[in-house]
Hints:
This protein has a domain at about 1-25 and about 60-94. It is about 60% helix and about 0% strand. The chain has helices at about 5-20, 30-40, 65-94. The longest helix has 29 residues, at about 65-94.
Amino acid sequence: MKKKEIIIGLMAAIFLALFISPFASQWPDGLEKVAEDKGFLQRGEVKPILSSPIPDYSWPGMKNEKLATSVAGGVGTFIIFFLGYGIATLLKKR
């Protein structure tokens, strides 16, 4: 893949994460809604091994919920991009 295509893809993902994610639905997804309606949502909860760096798609400590979601989306996108790019680079060298 060409470098220009990678940069365009990253910029599109960052745009979506920063400017579109704050408008995502606050309602639970289908599976979570059914689990809640049927009364077994709490039974499915387990104690995580590691704590999430960006819990519930919001940036800890920020008062503005839309801005916190936007920042969490942008940071998460960068982390996943560079992690994926690094793994791909290592595999390509083999």
